[in-house]
Amino acid sequence: MSIKKAIFPVAGLGTRFLPVTKAQPKEMLPIVDKPAIQYVVEEAVQSGIEDFLFITGKDKRPLEDYFDHSGELEYHLEQQGKTELLELVRNIACMCQIYYVRQKKPLGLGHAVWCAKQHIGDEYFAVLLGDDIVDSDKPCLKQMIEVYEKTRRPVVAIRRVPREEVSSYGIIQGRPLGDGLWEVSDLVEKPHPDEAPSDLAVIGRYILPPEIFPVLEKLDPGRGGEIQLTDALRVLAQEEPIIGCEFQGIRYDVGTPKGLLVATIEMALSREDLSEELEQYLVQLVRKRDLL
Ligand code: G1P
What we know:
This protein is of the alpha/beta class. Helices cover about 35% and strands about 25% of the residues. It has helices spanning about 35-45, 60-65, 70-80, 85-95, 110-115, 115-120, 140-150, 210-220, 230-240, 255-270, 270-290, and strands at about 5-10, 30, 35, 50-55, 100, 125-130, 130-135, 155-160, 170-180, 180-190, 200-210, 240-245, 250-255. The strands form 3 sheets. The protein has a 9-stranded mixed β-sheet. It has a two-stranded antiparallel ribbon with strand order 2-3. The termini are far apart.
């Protein structure tokens, strides 16, 4: 059986984006004109996911509303004959069936994944983190599902990062298998650069077995006092090999204001309706500021 269920941990408070996240989920911040979370949901849809579970928290209602029909807006657009816009907003509501579970306490990513236990049952599933957006010809998750289908092993997306940045990621220890695949023997959550086993960082895409749930249940809090998914993977890696997959594509870290801006500029530059004017503006800006 392939991967049909995916979970999206979206309960985070988004403190890096305060004050805007005071009354607005960070997942709804726009990249050009689409909320960040939609890019990730679309990746899952294009990867063949059929069952979507959001692990939400307090104040995340706008996410539910966004992926639902908006009767008043649709009626208004219909009346005005704005058929393209009508189709655009209808398609968002029809894109997928989303289920919601509340993470009642902010106990960490591992705990958020554990909250999906009942919904997932006894099958392999995917986890997609909204802070990571990947722009690629073949969706990142699809690349990973293909690896899973060949190996029938848990798969994590990995990418080399500069040494000074390893303390922001889960870092793997592994041996190369060829074709961008690694056999992961250990993982460390956010190590100090001097203690990191490599510069290969886990990016927010995982294919996990149901066996992760009992491991998460018994786990003590780790880095930052939180239940860490990385620590559970570490336990799994001792029992069976986990595969690290160096995926193809450009990855944006939209979990920081700078990363969100970079993604916004790059995505806008790849849009026909915006690229020309934006390029002209950027050239003017570079000249004005004497940047070259
Ligand atoms: C989480 C994980 C970390 C992973 C990262 C990928 O950290 O805990 O292992 O490398 O996502 O983006 P966060 O960025 O949520 O602190």
